Amino acid sequence: MERNLVIFSLALTLIFAMDLFKKEVDLGFTKFTFNLGFTDALERSAYDIRVRLSAREERDPRVVIIDIDEKSLLEYGQFPWPRGLVADLVNVSFDKYGVDTLGFDVLFAEPEDSFTRSEVAAALSDDSIGMAELEAQRGDQRLADALEGRSVVMGVVFENDGQIAHVEESVGVLPEPFFGSDPELNAKLIKESAAREVQRYSANIPLLQNAAGRAGFFSILVQDPDGIIRRVGVLNKYQDKLYGSLALQLVTAYFLDEPEPILIDNPDDGYAGLEGIQMLHAAIPLDGEAGVYVPYAKALQGYEYVSAADLLSGTYEGDITGAIALVGTSAAGLVDLRSTPVAPSLPGVEVHANVVSAMLDGSFRIRPNFATAADMLLLLVVGIILSFGLPYFSAFLSTVLYLLAVVSAVWLNWYFWSEKLLILSIAPVLLLSTLLYIADTVVGFFVESRAHRMSKKMFGLYVPPEVVSEMSSTEDVLTMASQKREMSVLFADIRGFTTISEGMQPEALSAWMNEFLTPMTKVIHSHKGAIDKYMGDAIMAFWGAPLVDEEHANNGVRAGLGMLAAVPEMNEYFRGKDWPEVAIGVGLNSGEMSVGNMGSEFRMAYTVLGDAVNLGSRVEGITKNYGVPILVTEFTAAVATDFDYQRIDSVRVKGKEEPVSMLRPLGAKGAVPQDLSQQADAFHEALDLYLKQEFEQARKLFTELSNQFGQSVLYDLYLERCALFIAEPPGEDWDGVYTATSK
């Protein structure tokens, strides 16, 4: 057992190791990428936990957010605001409060080409105000004048074909590419950069863009499958040029910098690419898509939110001199809320603020090129140690080894995260360790209880799961003692089995029987029945033990009808395999029976015995005489009151003196098809005439039934009896009982 567990553990370790690489596998006839999927989701959750644990709590005074909040909307109206009001916000931010650099997480893609009523009224009342003067008061012009000569970065939105386009074609004017317009340099950078390529943009109108000069995209295109923003793009490709993000352009403007690309060229593996951006104060590392992992601060704690209304009114009393200010919104109605590791709904402008803050310090966490190899090494070391250690250790030592492996992996991962700013995977090794520990624990439990489990499994082939549960928890159920109970018993038999078996090979016959017995057993179990035994082509089942079942008769009849209902589908399957079709007869009886474990010290069987059981067997045997698929005794019908029945006959079975009425269940009350119900009523009428010895009238009705509903064994049987009794009347003492001469 230990050896098998070691092999299983090593195989599981190999599966997790293969999952780390996410490599495409070519099988010749198909290709697929080995990816467990759930490990990625767990790793994203583990990443979020580390981000929250390491999130900065103190505010960064170098970055502030000018917030178009609910207060601002209440005082100055819904956004977008008139450009003149935005111009006032720019002027007061620089002139009164002394911000160093201002960035807009807002887009001005269309001109504000209408004058306000006050502007028109002023022009009409003052002859000195001409069109030139009025044009100078236009909102767009006022905003352009406010931007001119100041350190301002406008916003740009990029879109790709994977998104729902806001515009069918690009609008506005783009700024200069981030690394300049040198065609040779841009061609080299485009070739060596893995930045995301975009197809469209929405930029600012020329008047505003030319006045500001700089612009950066604030569209967050890097989004994980769960919708959480963990990374943002720093560079995007558009028409063979690279454009910088809003955060990157803000820091560049702040330092009056001319950044240079960091290119690597490794002839050993042929890798060449844009690895980062060198700025005056620090190097900004880029990942494989020219993006960065966002080093989040605590949500709504890392940066000061200054209400735009307070700046415009001059009532703000804080000090934001020399800061980089981002104009954005936290108002829910403006729909700029993002799902992040630190908050499910964080204003998008704060995402950019976090990137700006990290760029000022050059403090980004990166996932290095060797990260996958490092993850693989740790996974293999832990997996191999646990694979060979857990199966041979005691439960206590296995737990100690598991905890030691988990704690060591977490400590090592946190060390690289917090001290080296490296992002390594932790979820796969933790999940693998836990699965190996659980496997060892579960196998140990199963080994200790193997005999008990095997007993339950074998008994479960005959009785439903709830019976197994009761017999497992009740010691005296498994004794030799039997008890008397009111129960129901069912016998089912295959019609013409001898002929069928003679025409089939032994292997095919065995498979055919298995395909018959399995669905029949499922039906019985689904109605709380217990399989007593399989007798060649027959099934014996009972209800009412070991669990007491007050509905034993109803459940038995439901099972019998269910077995008949399963036959057509079974025969369709048999026809597909060129096997003989099957027809069955079902008989049920209810009454007092002896039930219990009966047998010898070498072999026992949980079974039922008694006259009521024998009568049930006889009932199944005579179904073929009447050409009906199912019959129950009057004793079953008396307690199985959920069904409508058709009286068939009164029979004195072999070995019994007292006659027993036989009835055919038609279906649940109120659910019997109308034609079947009408046929049964007509048969009852004919049967009543027959029992009254009005054989001529009875024969007439049986003939009408045969003509109307088709010739059947049942109608032919009674027509034959009527003819016999017409020729030789039975006498006044005739009780209408038929005496069966066979089982």
What does this structure look like?
The structure is a single chain. It is elongated and about 130 Å long. It has 4 domains: 2-36 and 368-448, no CATH class; 54-113 and 136-361, no CATH class; 476-671, Nucleotide cyclase, GGDEF domain (Alpha-Beta Plaits), CATH 3.30.70.1230; 673-743, no CATH class. Strand 18 and strand 19 form a beta hairpin. With 743 residues, the protein is α/β, with parallel strands linked by helices. Helix 7 (139-147) runs parallel beside helix 9, helix 13 packs antiparallel against helix 14 and helix 23 (674-691) packs antiparallel against helix 24 (695-709). Helices cover 45% and strands 20% of the residues. The strands form 7 sheets. Strands 20, 21, 22, 23, 24, 25, 26, 27 and 28 form a 9-stranded mixed β-sheet that branches. Strands 3, 4, 5, 7, 8, 16 and 17 form a 7-stranded mixed β-sheet that branches. The protein starts with a helix and ends with a strand.
Main structural class: alpha/beta
- Helix percent reads 40-55%
Strand residue percentage: 15-25%
* 3D shape: elongated
Core attributes:
743 residues; alpha/beta; Alpha-Beta Plaits; 4 domains; seven-stranded mixed sheet; elongated
What is the topology?
Elements lengths: L1 H20 L2 E3 L4 E3 L4 H17 L8 E5 L2 H7 L6 H13 L5 E4 L12 H9 L5 H6 L2 H9 L4 E8 L23 H10 L3 E2 L2 E3 L3 H7 L1 E4 L13 E3 L1 E4 L2 E4 L1 H10 L4 E7 L4 E8 L4 E3 L5 E3 L10 E4 H6 L10 E5 L8 E2 L7 E2 H14 L9 H19 L5 H24 L8 H22 L1 H10 L5 H9 L8 E13 L2 H6 L3 H21 L3 E6 L2 E6 L8 H25 L7 E16 L4 E6 L1 H16 L3 E4 H6 L3 E10 L7 E9 L5 H18 L3 H15 L3 H15 L10 E2 L4
Parallel strand pairs: 3-16, 3-17, 4-5, 4-17, 5-8, 6-10, 23-25, 26-28
Antiparallel strand pairs: 1-2, 5-7, 9-15, 10-11, 12-13, 13-14, 18-19, 20-22, 20-23, 21-22, 23-24, 25-27, 26-27
Helix pairs in contact: 1-13, 1-15, 4-7, 7-9, 10-12, 13-14, 13-15, 14-15, 19-20, 23-24, 24-25
